[in-house]
Amino acid sequence: MNISTIIEQAVTEWLKAPETPTAQDICSGWCCDFADPIYFAYRDKGVEIMALDSVEDAVAFCIDSPAVLEALRVGFLSHTFLRYVGKYYDAETPEGVSHPLLLPTYSRALVEGHEAGFIDRGLFDQSQAYVRMIGS
């Protein structure tokens, strides 16, 4: 099974709808609707549906970045995605990444949280360093 191809095909279908002209739009409010049918169609093949939208979820993913925890606490991070064979996938990342925080949605949310004043500069800088560390 090639999960990347499955996700790319689903994205192509979603992009036909006027409310989701880009993969980023799918990941900005439609992520659960996007992930659900893929999960239900392929769960018997090992596809899992996951979310990172609470401090409790962060603990489950062993995330201890104060900025990420603060962003979750104030509601700036909320996303549903898929996991398959140790990688994480969404509409923007059909190739998968090794950690959920490497999905583009989370880096955008941290920037937006900082720009909105919910994450101070020091925590924001820490979060960027944390994401770089898990990505290496």
Descriptive overview:
The structure is a single chain. The chain is mostly helical. 51% of the residues lie in helices and 10% in strands. It contains 7 helices and 3 strands. The two termini are 27 Å apart.
Q: What labels describe this entry?
A:
mainly alpha, 3 strands, three-stranded antiparallel sheet, 136 residues
Oligomer: single chain
Regions with little confidence, pLDDT below 50 for 5+ residues? none
Roughly how much helix do the residues carry, as a percent range?
40-55%
Mean pLDDT across the residues is 89
Class computed from helices, strands and strand pairing: mainly alpha
Order of helices and strands: HHHEHHEEHH
Query: How much is the radius of gyration in Å?
Result: 15 Å
* Broad shape: globular
Quick one: biggest sheet? 3 strands, antiparallel
Compute the separation of the termini in Å: 27 Å
Strand order of the largest sheet: 1-2-3
The share of residues in extended strands comes to 5-15%
Number of helices: 7
Number of β-strand runs: 3
